[in-house]
Amino acid sequence: MNLPVGKFKAGDRVTVKFEDRPGHIRTPWYIRGKSGWIERVYGDFLNPESLAFGRDGLPKRTLYLVAFNQSDVWPKTVGSRDKILVDIYEHWLTPAA
Amino acid sequence: MSDSDDTTKAPQDHGHDHPKHELSYYAKRIYAIRDLLLEKGVITDKDIQSQVEYQEARSPANGAKLVARAWVDPAFKSRLIGDPKAACAEMGIDATSINEFVVLENTAKVRHVVVCTLCSCYPRPILGRPPDWYKSFNYRQRAVNDPRGVMQEFGLELPDDVEVRVHDSTADIRYLVLPMRPEDTEGLSETELARLVTRDSMIGVMDALPTLPPS
To answer: I need a labelling partner for B131 at 20 to 30 A (CA). Which of A8, A13, B91, B141 fits?
Structure first.
């Protein structure tokens, strides 16, 4: 496991940026704009958005396991205790308002 | 192409077999690429053969071995969850090609399901190639917005007080679900236990088999 150096820590509330741009984006559409919390800090990884185009992937990006309530992602599931957990790189996250 | 002007030689006659039936566009393309790589000395026939053997050797049997050992040996289970790659090495399973490997333990109160909504990320060294349904749009969509419905189709009915945790494997992490050991299996050997561990139970859409399947 790489040493975590990112700006978020487990438990922090975060919102996924709602951005629409071309490229090898690893942030699924359905989770953009949604809010959840940091479940786990995975460490720093080469940036796939750069690697996919034959570049060096630097600077590395901190990767987080971010948890969301099902009911915050899909309104029809109100009352559910189920969760969705997505691996998201730091540059896609902002502190939740 | 100046060094391959020998038109008297049949194009198929250069050291390895080509399929005899009509090939699709993509199959023709991949064979052409292979031949170019060989011709230019980038790779050898032996490299291809050993890579094919390596890919074929990777199968859900690897994952089943890990799970069965974890069921019978609590210390191994801790190591498998704490440092999965080291636990794989201990069992002679090569997981080094995975960037980061995470094992998700199912309990009576929590069930994990793995999907890759973006493509088909899958712990291939542990489970081999993903099943077609894992790569289908249907699964990739429904696993995140109706996981209980998907599990139901695989025969798993979960009460409301069980939490379902869907892992969307979007980046460098590969996930393996550690299913629960079925009840009343104390009499089974580790090898027999491994036969209860299906591929689908390690993706998380179902539990391990309750009893031994017919061999």
So the answer is: B91
